[in-house]
């Protein structure tokens, strides 16, 4: 990143249309204006299929916008940046490598010597509570443990931007809450900017500094809510606070309308 004062991420009038197999153009997202400051945790919520993942792929450089601009660190995105980390619903772990080797893979790929990569990987495995599991293979772990490996394997690369697409949605409710707390602990002090896509409004409020509500597809930004809940937060505790409930009501009145529009469209298509 070259421009130190520029926001971490900026979308300016960004849009993406895909060519469908029949040759028609399908607009997935349109006129997206969004700024993510450095060190900010931004959650994106919206009705199913509206274009949340597409927005992330534009920021990641996996896809190019067909309209407007996407800037990371003040520069137009060109391809996948080395200081961008990803965590998706499916675990991006190598099944044939041990836990330690999985976490070492990023630093090794980025040119770190083996001993240094091992030391950094062990440090992050300790932070996620998996030191005793470093010789296991991913299939010998629980879903929550695999997710912790994925988090360690991401944070070990010291990403300045972290893109997360429903990372905890396959986990049971208790494990999900634990993982959310763990994510907040790992993120605190890293200075990384996070964009976290979720279906779960409670999760988004508990985690984020800002919640972005997207419209029914093709999505654009409908409203951005600032979450003024103090940190550090524990997700199971913060959601019982009166302010949390107030924020939830406020955002739901905006999001609920888009969910209704999406459902009604579905009913028309199904009829
Ligand atoms: N590669 C592609 N080619 C054609 N259409 C696509 C492509 N990727 C996404 N789409 C379409 O763009 C729209 C937005 O999809 P996207 O996955 O971004 O939504 P989403 O909000 O993340 O969905 P969900 O909440 O269900 O995960 C959908 O209608 C989808 O079918």
Description of the molecule:
GO terms for molecular function: ATP binding; ATP hydrolysis activity. It is a single chain. The chain has 271 residues and is α/β, with parallel strands linked by helices. The chain has a domain at 9-83 and 159-270: Rossmann fold (3-Layer(aba) Sandwich). 38% of the residues lie in helices and 23% in strands. It contains 8 helices and 10 strands. The chain has a 6-stranded mixed sheet with strand order 6-7-8-3-9-10, sandwiched between helices. Helix 2 crosses helix 3, helix 3 crosses helix 4 (143-155) and helix 4 (143-155) packs parallel to helix 5 (173-187). The model has no long low-confidence stretch (mean pLDDT 92). Residues 18, 20, 26, 28, 46, 48-54, 217 line the site of adenosine-5'-triphosphate (ATP).
Blueprint of the fold:
Layout: E1 9-19, E2 25-36, E3 41-45, H1 52-60, E4 67-72, E5 75-76, E6 84-88, H2 99-109, H3 114-127, H4 143-155, E7 161-165, H5 173-187, E8 193-197, H6 201-207, E9 210-214, E10 221-226, H7 235-238, H8 242-270
Parallel strand pairs: 3-8, 3-9, 6-7, 7-8
Antiparallel strand pairs: 1-2, 1-4, 4-5, 9-10
Bound molecules: adenosine-5'-triphosphate (ATP).
